[in-house]
Amino acid sequence: MDIAQLTSVAIFVIALGIIISEKIHRAVVALAGAVLVMMLGIMPFEEAIGHIDFNTLGVLFGMMLFVGVVKLSGLFEYLAVKCAHIAKGQPWRIMLIFVLLTAVLSAFLDNVTTVLLIGPMTLNICKLLKVDPVPYFLTEIMASNIGGTATLIGDPPNIMIGSAAGYGFVDFILVDTPAVIIILAVICVVFYFLYGRKMTAPQSEIDDVLELRPADYIKDHRLLRISVVMICLVVVGFMFHGALGWESSVIALGAAGLILLLSRAQIDHALAQVEWTTLVFFAGLFIIVGAMTATGVIDMLASWLVDITGGNVFLTMLVLVFGSAIVSAFLDNIPFVATMIPILASMQATGMDVTPLWWAVSLGACLGGNGSLIGASANVVLSDISRKNGHTITFIQYLKVGFPIMMLTTVIAAVYLVLRFPPV
């Protein structure tokens, strides 16, 4: 490795260490690391800016604005009380409903959009029952990443793989979705033993919640109708944005602009709902990871993952599913998958059947997002929502739960791939 490569790795490792220590806010660390990359000449300003995924930032910004306006209707309070009634006020049943709802929505919506919708509902129901929302947030983060693995549009790496390998929506339903269903069933059992058995609420609080009328929480009936229609349009937009030739950020920003226009909501109020620190963190992180991409570190890592198997497809499949998961737990999975695509394409060009390898990268990269608090956009967004409402989720606190669960789901995915694509 040359000086530039070593420096880019050092900046990433030091930044990660400071983020883990939580002595300095992660947005400040990411911003400082990005500036350092440019000051040390690893990348000039123009190239560094080019590594920022403005599509992801656009989705984040657009959906934060969108949800900020929808909140004014009382929809989230209404849904929270409704879910509590369906669950008979039992905290574990409510958690299970939210986990399944998050996973299903994440299969058809951007993960960030899903947690932005689920987060306010979670806070409301936890306030009503006077229970700690952190276990709910932890399980919803993991459910969003697992659910997003199921379909072509559920997670950006799947969109990239589908485009490169020529796989369509149905292909992902046939291959990834069965694995996700198995994983989700196992994870719900794990969540029960981790949290469900210990979840209680005073009977008086449960009775009080069951006496609440969901309709009483609707603040603006006109905005509620607009919000429901707009959410449906957003779902359809995310499902078909590829066919329409629109980036997902166009859907999110368009939805935000339209609901602001129709609702006549105050733009100042909507902007106040945006998690600006989250946007700054991701912008800085994209540049830090981009430095390792520009210097060839990511290329070296991807090639090494393939080379250590000696070209054996079965062994490569296993290495890729675990390697993709572990790497994606701490690095943005988008540049990693972008690097793996030409490597797999070149192997395919030699006549090798690399079908199992595409699915190994898909499952590993998407499930790997659960490995750490910075493993996926949804993790950062929901943890920031939690912190903003007085419930801090630390890096280590999440790592203790998220990393073992990520490894468990990756083992299940590996077993599934072995059964689906047995060695010949």
Notable traits:
single chain; 424 residues; mainly alpha; 21 helices; globular
Shape: globular
Strand content: under 5%
Number of strands: 0
Mean pLDDT: 88
Question: Spans of 5+ residues with little confidence (pLDDT < 50)?
Answer: none
Helical content stands at over 70%
What is the CA-atom radius of gyration, in angstroms? 21 Å
Cα end-to-end separation: 37 Å
Q: What structural class results from the helix and strand content?
A: mainly alpha
User: How would you characterize the largest beta sheet?
Assistant: none
| Helix count, DSSP H or I runs of 4 or more residues | 21
Could you give the order of the helices and strands? HHHHHHHHHHHHHHHHHHHHH
Topology:
Layout: H1 3-21, H2 26-39, H3 45-50, H4 54-70, H5 75-86, H6 91-108, H7 111-129, H8 134-148, H9 156-165, H10 169-194, H11 203-210, H12 221-244, H13 248-263, H14 267-272, H15 276-294, H16 297-307, H17 313-330, H18 333-349, H19 355-367, H20 377-388, H21 395-420
Helix pairs in contact: 1-2, 1-15, 2-15, 4-7, 4-13, 4-15, 5-7, 6-7, 6-8, 7-8, 7-20, 8-10, 8-20, 9-18, 9-19, 10-21, 12-13, 16-18, 17-19, 17-21, 18-19, 19-21
